[in-house]
Target: Protein N-terminal asparagine amidohydrolase
Amino acid sequence: MVLVLNGVIQDERPINTHALFLEHPVYRETATQLLSIPTKTVGAPGLLYVCQREMAAVAPHDRNVNIIGSDDATTCIIVVVRHSGSGAIALAHLDGSGTDEAVSAMVARVQELAFGYPEGRIELQLIGGFSDPQGYAEDLFSNIMQSFHKHPLEIDLTQSCVGELNTMVRDDINWPIIYGVGVNIKTGEIFPANFPDKGPDLPLRMARHFTGSHQVLDIYDAAVGMLRIGPFNYDPLRGVDLWLAQSDEFILKHLSTSPDVEPPHFAMQVRATLRYIQDNQFPAVTVFRNNNPHYFRRDETTGCWTPVRY
Model:
């Protein structure tokens, strides 16, 4: 049990965010510093975008990626694992599904990318998960802390901008302050960010968590420098036609964990995803023919991901 808080190895994980901030005020200070950075709008060139229930890992010398990031996190938490010696980074957008496996995979991928750098610690940063009325984010924080605490390696929590620290009140409603973050892979700098372009195959990628797939998918092959989606299958979703016939307000109310504070494009993205599921009920057959992933290579002219044709 080797979770390290403020430089001290812990026998027990923090029971909740309030206890963490009460016992370790340094996390209030680091969160305040992060919140003071203006939010950057990051374009597609050089971006490796990570969706909900996805993760990716990248090394600083990777010439295909400048920024790794994720946004649209309300009750979700964005998790960043970094090796301080090599600068290798893994980032995940977690919602409570597949947490144990994702934590193990993130640490393993960072260790692989840090091979040959004997000096350095595994650092952990958590961002997102505001104080929502149902306590979803608080449960998720506990879930993530438990997963890291039982990992055999020492994990040094350096940032925890979650819960009350990532919450503001507007019209008597709790809102997230930060919805997303980017990480500069060369410097390790982390900053509040939003991403208008979320990369290729977005409806396909989002379909996984609408249809009950619990795995956190690793979407980047650092060995060849390519974005990799799938292969995967999902169960057909009943009543898609009925969902698509409903108003945006109905979709927001019934398909969001935090309908009052979702970004404005939420309903539009959900509709695009539902239409994709309607058209591709069995992706193992219609999307991933011959069980091949979708690969995307960085175009050297535009800096954006383009499909690799076989």
